[in-house]
Amino acid sequence: PWVTSVGGTTTRLDGTSVQESAWNSNGGASGGGFSAFFPTPDFQKTLPATVQNQFNNRRGVPDVSGDADPNTGLVFYFTGQWQQVGGTSASAPLWAGLMAIANQMAGHPLGFINPALYKLAASSTYTQDFRDVTTGNNDVHEKGVNVKGYPAVQGWDPVTGLGTPNAAKLLPDLIAAMK
Question: What average pLDDT does the structure give for the chain?
Fold first, then answer.
């Protein structure tokens, strides 16, 4: 409950717009679900009752998401070549970088951001602060293993959390929500 859990998405260019869905391809997928050890933290109790019914007094993860597909994820320069990387091990540092920028903008460390993230999710700024990912799932069907996961749906879900950041809008709103 004391970490900001980051799930994964993938993007696809559809004409002139970008479509984003839960990452579940090429042998990788966004994790997510509900803890067997930790109860629902207070900041998640602010989610609508329809979402609360899924929690069953358990911590839900992830809190947020970022592009994790190696085919659409982060680009970096290494030993003289541009390369791409993905996985939630790429989307989590993306969020860490955004929070470093937010700390710099605020002029001080923001500290534990989860209560403010969920406060924004319940506010009128949610749709401008986050891209709500509503398609895809984190089912597993690989090498004879079949595990039913969760679908991405409107609002918080246990595969993409609150969604992906619109950093230009989210960071100032997050700083204001932390006061």
Answer: 93
Residues in the chain: 179
For residue range 61-70, list pLDDT tens digits in order. Answer: 999 999 999 8
Sequence-distant (≥ 6) Cβ neighbours of residue 170 within 8 angstroms: 98, 120, 129, 130
Q: Classify the phi-psi angles of 46: left when phi > 0, otherwise alpha if psi is within -120 to 50, otherwise beta.
A: alpha
Closest C-alpha among 104, 107, 151, 161 to residue 129: 161
Q: Are 86 and 74 in contact (CB under 8 A)?
A: yes
| 117 neighbors 5 (Cβ within 8 angstroms) | no
* Residue 31 and residue 7 in contact, taking contact as beta carbons nearer than 8 Å: yes
Res 82: pLDDT: 93
Burial 144-154 (b: 16+ CB within 10 A, else e): eeeeebbbbbe
26 pLDDT more than 70: no
Cα 58 → chain centroid:
18
Q: Which residue carries 């970088």 as its tokens?
A: 97
What is the pLDDT at residue 27? 65
What's the rounded Cα separation, in Å, for the pair 86 and 89? 7
**Residue 45 token pair:** 């109790």
